[in-house]
Design goal:
alpha/beta, D-Maltodextrin-Binding Protein, domain 2, eleven-stranded mixed sheet, 8 helices, elongated
């Protein structure tokens, strides 16, 4: 799964968009602990009408999640197929080609045979039970999670990050260079539930009423970019890897371009992998492999080879 926010909002293949017909209800700004994040920030349903207050209420529940139930779990032990690393990638993720290369590179650094497993084709949305089951049955490590501190259930462990990517404002207006150039009379939007969009809503709520943009919550990056291309939104805040993947596959997005978030600071997230918490030795070795691949330039080479909007972590 690449770098996800809510139920794959960063993924090119999903579009759970509801018509833009009402501004986002903005609650009083409060601290929020973001939940489990595959190329995700908050592990809650991607409902376009969900209010900020509901997100605040639901997000902390993730950390307390119990180990999911899997029928006949006793059947699954350590894999006995020799020196290999089974790694999972999600075909719906925008960084899929990058994740495949990184998974193979990690296996190579550990002198293990890379065994890739592509998942997600028959998954509806995203569910932590599915993640637990695939780690139990199929893969040693699952690539493509945004690394958000204190947001994961105890049965799940996270690796070091292997790249950092940003959220970007995207518009069709060639004259605008930053968010500050967008007239306040023009509506803007963002993918609901992402940490970047939550910060955007907090910023808008702190402005004087005459200086506020009308903000619409959008169910996915794909839907947000579609609204910008059709003129429903003046600009939208999306995960940069999603824009990268969707622009390559959708000619309707050819005229869109990213602009600076100014006056907001840049929002970004590290992306790494997850594995079962009990796999402490494997986690330590994967972390060492990521460090080595970063230091020798392999990570930079993979990202730059795809023209991917991310940077290896130093």
């Amino acid at each position: 799964m690449s770098a996800k926010d809510i139920y794959g909002s960063s993924r090119p293949g999903q579009d759970h968009h509801r018509p833009v017909n009402a501004p986002m209800v903005i609650a009083e700004p409060r601290p929020i602990r973001h939940g489990l994040s595959r190329v995700h920030d908050i592990w809650v349903p991607a409902l376009a009408g969900t209010t900020f207050a509901v997100l605040i209420f639901l997000a902390p529940l993730v950390a307390a999640a119990q180990t999911p139930f899997v029928q006949d779990e006793w059947k699954y032990g350590r894999r006995q197929d020799g020196p290999s690393l089974h790694y999972c990638v999600d075909e719906r993720d925008p960084d899929l080609p990058v994740a495949r290369k990184i998974g193979a590179a990690i296996a190579g650094a550990l002198l293990l045979e890379p065994k890739e497993h592509t998942v997600g084709e028959d998954w509806s949305g995203e569910d932590i039970d599915q993640v637990y089951q695939v780690l139990l049955e199929t893969c040693d490590v699952f690539l493509g999670f945004k690394l958000i501190a204190d947001a994961y259930p105890e049965w799940l462990a996270i690796t070091r990050g292997y790249y950092r990517a940003s959220y970007v404002f995207v518009t069709a207006n060639a004259d605008w260079k930053s968010l500050a150039d967008v007239p306040h009379s023009q509506p803007i939007g963002g993918t609901i539930g992402t940490s970047a969009d939550i910060r955007l809503m907090q910023y808008i709520a702190a402005l004087r009423p005459a200086e506020r943009w009308t903000h619409y919550p959008i169910a996915s990056d794909e839907a947000a970019l579609g609204d910008v291309s059709r003129g429903k939104l003046a600009a939208a805040l999306v995960w940069a890897p999603s824009f990268w993947a969707l622009k390559k596959s959708n000619p309707d997005l050819a005229a869109l371009h990213p602009i600076s978030p100014r006056p907001l600071p840049q929002s970004s997230a590290e992306v790494g992998a997850v594995l079962l918490a009990r796999e402490t030795f494997l986690r330590a070795n994967i972390d060492q492999a990521i460090v080595a691949l970063t230091q020798d330039g392999t990570m930079d080479g993979i990202l730059q080879g795809f023209g991917f909007p991310g940077a290896a972590l130093r």
